[in-house]
Amino acid sequence: MTWGLPRRSPLWEKFMFWFCCVLFNIAEADGEMSHAYATLGVSAPHLYYTCPEGATVKMLCAQRGATMYDHDVLKRAWLFTQHSDQHCSGRQGPRGTVINSHSHSLPPGLQFGSTDNNFWVQLQNVTHADQGRYCCMVLDIRVEHKHGSIVQKPHSHVLLQVSPRRNGSQECTVWDPTPPGGSVPVALAIAACILALLSLPLILVLVYKQRHNAQSSRRAQELVRMDSEAHGHENPVFLGGSPQIKTRTVSQIMTRQSSETGRHLLSEPGTPFTPPIHGDVFFPIEDTIPESPDLLQV
Questions:
Q1: 48-52 and 155-163 as β-strands: parallel, antiparallel, unpaired?
Q2: Residues 99, 100, 105, 111: what is their CA dihedral angle, to the nearest 10 degrees?
Q3: Distance from the Cα of residue 230 to its chain's centroid
Q4: What is the pLDDT of residues 65-87, one digit of tens each?
């Protein structure tokens, strides 16, 4: 008895297709993130700052990526507006400063600073006039023939809220209502991987049971076929008993039987192809069989 290779389960094919789609989406998300980091970008680690009057606040923005061309010039800038629900516009900076002005002096209590990956603005002795929206941006300037053109201008913003002066601690607090945008796709990809790994044992158990049931069914059919061949049956489906030969008594033989279809039997007179009553019959006249007295008495 030979067994063929079991056919691949459709459930297993669906699982493999779904798992490959998850891996493809993860790879695509990683590719998009790597592409995003290849270009210039700005993000704010903390979105909301709350400070009491008279406190000192240091608002920070992070820079990532690189310039589009190797010889480009980077410039960092801060804009300010007192309307927290509006975008920064124009050239107005914190505490009345003007961006790209020729004056190098800053108002008292205002400082700017930067490192390779971060830049910030620091305000000392904050008042209600400092409350508002602070926009941080990085300018990627390409210089050609002594003329500069901005090729990238990523930006972000932070919000400063100034509360009444209070006794005790003068520290500022930060509040982040939403996680950073880059962490959401990564978290979804990790959750999908964990779900796939947890579902793998269940899928394997279902596939094993399906294949085991298929093999058991084939084995049962093969045993039935072998048993039918041993008994001489050509078709194992029709395994009824051997046909019984019906016996009839002499009176049943002598009695004319009507057909099940309602037609006359050939033995009745007047039936088509019935031999004539008088004259020659099927048997020669000289071979006529005399009626037996025993049969007539039955």
A1: parallel
A2: 50
A3: 53
A4: 888 888 888 899 999 999 999 98
